[in-house]
Amino acid sequence: MEVKFIFIAGVEGCGHHGLCPVVDTALKSFVGQSGVSSGVFTRWQPIRNVFAQLWYGVQQTPAQQQQARDNLQALMTQLKAHAVKTGCPQYIVEDNSFPSGRVRCVSRQWDLVEMAQLVRPFAEMKVVALYRDPAAMTFSHEDFDGGLIDHARMVAVHLEHLNNRLLRLDPATVKVLHYEDLVDRQQEIVSPLSRFLNIEERHVQLGLREVRRSRKDWKTDLPPEKRDWLEDFFSEERLALWPVFQDDSYSIRNF
């Protein structure tokens, strides 16, 4: 496939904004050192505008939504034609958190299933789902949604939502990367991540230099009563409701 569409997804607070520069740097290093006419389009605004029009807006008519789909088709057609003409692959790198910072409703999030359907005729789609201890995700934005408890519930709702959307995609296209591996065990993910991106390991190693560890630690920074509540809320029973993030068959380590 001449065009590769790499999407980084995760629930708010997972660190997806930290992973996007890793992939961006790795791909640009690969493209730059190979001397080919490939392009890396990271957080490409024309496509982001289409996604926002499709799923964020509540006043969109069916005709307007179809226009957005047509716009996406035109963008992808142009990019694929360039890739075919030059014989050089083109890369699109997108990322988004669930929920969006300003759009909290589950029904108005970017739809990964429809996204895959729209992209598939033009590009090979790969999804990296970044997962982090949900208590840590909650604590990273503990003041959202009115406070820690309500925000934890929001995190749980969107973990369930994202899990269910990922389950509807081809399992071969979805790989889960744990935040703890990204910051603490990088050498263990270099090889599988390079295979997933289909570039040499040295480019991935360069990209991993972009990783910055969070300075917040819910286990030490939260008062005991709030810490105990989070541990109880995100119990093993609740974690089992999100199999994509728990099943080793989805882990990028096993790619």
How would you describe this protein?
There is one protein chain. With 255 residues, the chain is of the alpha/beta class. It has one domain (3-254): Rossmann fold. It contains 13 helices and five strands. Strands 2-3-1-4-5 form a five-stranded parallel sheet, with helices on both faces. The protein is globular, with a radius of gyration of 19 Å. The chain starts with a strand and ends in a 9-residue tail after the last helix. The model has no long low-confidence stretch (mean pLDDT 94).
Summarize the structure.
With 255 residues, the chain is an alpha/beta fold. It contains 13 helices and 5 strands.
Distance between the termini: 19 Å
Mean pLDDT: 94
Please give the order of strands in the largest beta sheet.
2-3-1-4-5
Count of beta strands: 5
Walk me through the topology.
Blueprint lengths: L2 E9 L4 H19 L4 E4 L2 H11 L6 H25 L3 E9 L13 H8 L4 E8 L2 H7 L7 H20 L6 E5 H6 L5 H8 L3 H8 L9 H4 L2 H10 L2 H4 L3 H4 L9
Parallel strand pairs: 1-3, 1-4, 2-3, 4-5
Helix pairs in contact: 1-9, 2-3, 5-6, 8-9
